[in-house]
Amino acid sequence: MSTEPQATTADGSGAPDADCLFCRIVAGQIPATVVRETETTLAFRDINPQAPTHVLVIPKLHHPDAASLAAAAPQAAADVLAAAGEVAAQEELESYRLVFNTGAGAGQTVFHAHVHVLGGRGLQWPPG
Ligand code: AMP
Ligand code: ZN
User: How many other β-carbons are positioned within 10 Å of the β-carbon of residue 60?
Assistant: First the structure.
């Protein structure tokens, strides 16, 4: 068995990835405007907001997208959804949208699972 340190977490362990932007935010190495934190999740404002409220909720575990998070760590996935609802409540959003972009073709640019909480303006359907 290899004793090499794990540079990435493609094994699904959820261990931090030193090259991952959101793991670095969790570790406090990159600043973020945190609006909510639980034992398993972190919520912070998107740096390029697309609505008056645009918050990202992430699991502290590293998994590349929502489906792999749910498969490997279902409780953490549930915690992310619960935290998203709590953020919407604390932001006093009556209506809001939760978005999990999955894959580059769908607009995913950061491959650490996250849900966008968007609200504070009218939202069209279907999205672009
Ligand atoms: P996605 O395109 O779904 O992967 O979402 C990634 C989001 O992360 C984008 O909406 C970016 O604006 C946002 N983002 C990138 N870097 C930062 C950062 N340092 N702090 C907060 N949000 C960020
Ligand atoms: Zn990560």
Answer: 21
